[in-house]
Amino acid sequence: xxxxxxxxxxxxxxxxxxxxxxxxxxxxxxxxxxxxxxxxxxxxxxxxxxxxxxxxxxxxxxxxxxxxxxxxxxxxxxxxxxxxxxxxxxxxxxxxxxxxxxxxxxxxxxxxxxxxxxxxxxxxxxxxxxxxxxxxxxxxxxxxxxxxxxxxxxxxxxxxxxxxxxxxxxxxxxxxxxxxxxxxxxxxxxxxxxxxxxxxxxxxxxxxxxxxxxxxxxxxxxxxxxxxxxxxxxxxxxxxxxxxxxxxxxxxxxxxxxxxxxxxxxxxxxxxxxxxxxxxxxxxxxxxxxxxxxxxxxxxxxxxxxxxxxxxxxxxxxxxxxxxxxxxxxxxxxxxxxxxxxxxxxxxxxxxxxxxxxxxxxxxxxxxxxx
Length: 371
Description:
6-stranded mixed sheet
């Protein structure tokens, strides 16, 4: 399979969410997932839970579990991440039901031209200095989103209520996987119909530090399998659709901050993600930029123009965010091997990572529990 040939906006996260819309008699944003359609049509479930375990891709499950593992036995299908396969992009697709081209949430960081600032989206930090920016979250202000669950609640006249179960970084989030499990079970056993979005940060956090195959990852997947089994046994009239935002691969850094001649071609901070970087090139430096990129990185990254990625629909179909063309810069790099760019010294030394152009990074499961 060639670079990016796997990108498929007919079998990705937003097709799953389109099936959720269809089930609740809303107009789907995109083509629905036929497998999910058939599962949701089996009965009138009181509880529909979408579980997202960060980076729990198919390759991670296959490398760290046996064929008798709960996650493997309950896996019924596969799909792809939205592109690039990274948390800010893909969880936003789950939460909103919209492709990245529409939300504008494309990766870890965004360069906003009007304020001449690169911002790490989730922590609201300066991309270059990593200092926290005081005040409101800039990305959320400039790229506002609305949860699909809120729309479902409104459109069903609150006959279906929406709930998010999140880790501790979120207000009222869970401090442990055990609390995460208990909260979901308690919600499901309350009266009424509910749509629940449940996100957990593992195994992503561990694999960033330790790589994609080790005993720690195996332990985490065992815990997740047990959690899902308990939810299935301790609830009624519930279906859980379990997947990931993306997967991970083992990686090696490139100290991009040492390539002074290359960096001199740029007029703004590199943004998006370290395996799909967006480049903003100075006027008159374009030929030098391309020459140096090919000299240093052509064996590790593919380089695309802004127009090429637009023509490829790399960030999906649908209404274009007003800032989209500005955000993606002049050129987009896509990792075609195991490497990632470090833009400042000693920041995020990863052993496992994602956000690049390998099929393995974007191949995620469809796992089902139901009762």
